[in-house]
Amino acid sequence: MTDTEKTEGHSGAHAALASAKTLEEVLNTAIGFEDTARTFYAALAPKVSKPMRALVEELAEEEQRHYDLFTGVRDHPDTVAHLKDLIATPPEDHKFADFVQMPKLDDNPDDQAILQYAMGREDAAYKQYSALAETTPDGPLRDLFRFLADEELRHKGELEKTYYEIIHSGGV
Predict the structure, then answer these.
(1) Is residue 5 part of a domain?
(2) 90 lies in which domain range?
(3) Helix, strand or coil for residue 20?
(4) What is the value of pTM for the model shown?
(5) What is the 3-state secondary structure (H, E, C) of 54-83?
(6) What Å distances lie between residue 7 and 18, 56, 87, 91, CA to CA?
(7) Is residue 29 part of a domain?
(8) Could you give the 3-state DSSP secondary structure of residue 139?
(9) Residue 143 CA to chain centroid, in angstroms?
């Protein structure tokens, strides 16, 4: 979108502003996403079968690393000066933000439900981070979003493999 199209009163101005968030909002949403996942998986670990426990604990550790990455970027002096800069948000931003809420699972969740939830989270994160990498200017932040998109896609693939093993072999 050109600078003229972003000016007040231009027909594209409202759409451009509606599809943008500050860098701070984007980072805080991502931090919330990763924090919720870490908390969810850490609390889930003692409730799942032993074979699933290792996977759930690994997921909690991965989410902790992502949380640490995002908080480090947000709090870095080079980033602080740009926290109010606007970034175009992906069309599916609401789906990503929905995963900031904790899912409700019973006290003995089955492996299939856990894997389905985890695959949905990884897919939403992959799409979000990929789209943000496309709309973020070249530099460290774009590199971070690309790195995380690649990680989320890898995680999703691993979860899909485990899911296939459960569905077709009757267990992990």
Answers:
(1) no
(2) 22-169
(3) strand
(4) 0.76
(5) HHHHHHHHHHHHHHHHHHHHHHCHHHHCCC
(6) 13, 48, 16, 22
(7) yes
(8) coil
(9) 15
| pLDDT tens string 36-84 | 889 988 988 988 888 788 988 999 999 999 999 999 999 999 889 888 9
pLDDT band at 87 (very low <50, low <70, confident <90, very high): confident
Taking alpha carbons only, the member of 51, 59, 169, 42 closest to residue 119 is: 59
Report if residue 43 sits inside a domain.
yes
Please tell me whether residue 172 adopts helix, strand or coil conformation: coil
Q: What is the CATH number of the domain that holds 28?
A: 1.20.1260.10
- Structure-block tokens of residue 16: 């451009």
* Cβ pair 87, 22 in contact under 8 A: yes
The total of structural domains in the chain comes to 1
Contact 25, 100 (CB under 8 A): no
